[in-house]
Amino acid sequence: MYVVFYSPLTMMSDLPENYERSDLTDYISEIPDSWDQTLVLAADPGNYVCVARRNDDKWFVGALADENCYLLKIPLTFLQNSGVYKATIVHDNSTTDWELNPESCGFSLLFLRRSDTLFIPLSKAGGFLMKIEPWFQISLDENYSGVQLFNVVAVNSMDVFEKQKTYGETHISHLAVGSKVTLSTPYSPLYQASGGNALCDGVIGSYNFSNGGWQGFEGSGMEAVIELPEETRISSISANFLYSPNDWIFLPSSVDYYYSEDGISYKLLKRTDIPGKRPADVKIMEIRNIEARFESVNARYIKVVAASSGICPEWHYAKGEKSWVFVDEIIIE
């Protein structure tokens, strides 16, 4: 994004702790905030874009993809001279997965000529970043095969990417999909998913909580009532909760499931208490499914109550600050 989107004031978003463990921090810090030349090397509006920007004699090339995967063909004819260049590339690799492993990436070092062409694989919702600079310390003979080998690996990577789940395609079918959801506690406008009935829209949130799949509740728990289209025989209720203490997102202290035939008188089906222990690693990220199974009952209304103190615990570096509860699909079967 630092290359694709122009900004005269670049910054690293998120918490500093999240950059201490990243191999990309030093690499990103080298990206300038002003440019002498900008070129669009490849683009299909709404699908992908690849932009090259030059600062003095260094080029930075970046690309982003939509929910699909692409193999970009990038001729290097934009380089000014026919000498040798060193390219440092950060790219998607065979383990990159937008849902399960979004931070996975590969690093490649290549020596290039202006006459070369690179094939760059973009995974679904993926991208790449490349720094190119003149390199006078070596000369390349005609048998140099680094670029050819990189291109072969790039083409082979597409077989893996094409088999991955498409970004955003995480759907589930259950009895409450499309049902009306009434919330007693409002969700944050920052994390509203698809809006009022998002907790029963059939879309499952991923580990990337900023992609619009979760509803976030700041400084409180969550209470929701689901109105089924008609009285229905049910035997299971569950809900997903995100746990990411480094992002101030905690599991509720308890989850209660109720049912009702008239929407007035509710009966408790199950309570689940969740201990608020300090994890071994505060950077853990987990999706916890809290489920209640029971003898089947007739129900028209389902109430879900997720309790929370609303503040970060004593052991947390932000103790006393408002915490978050992130809720995903409420599944009724």
From TrEMBL:
Domain Glycosyl-hydrolase 97 C-terminal oligomerisation: residue ranges: 34-132
Cross-referenced Gene3D superfamilies: Aldolase class I (3.20.20.70), Galactose-binding domain-like (2.60.120.260)
InterPro entries in the record, alphabetically?
Aldolase_TIM, Galactose-bd-like_sf, GH97_C, Glycosyl_hydrolase_97
UniProt-listed PANTHER family: GLUCAN 1,4-ALPHA-GLUCOSIDASE SUSB-RELATED, RETAINING ALPHA-GALACTOSIDASE
Q: What is this protein called?
A: Glycosyl-hydrolase 97 C-terminal oligomerisation domain-containing protein
Organism field = bioreactor metagenome
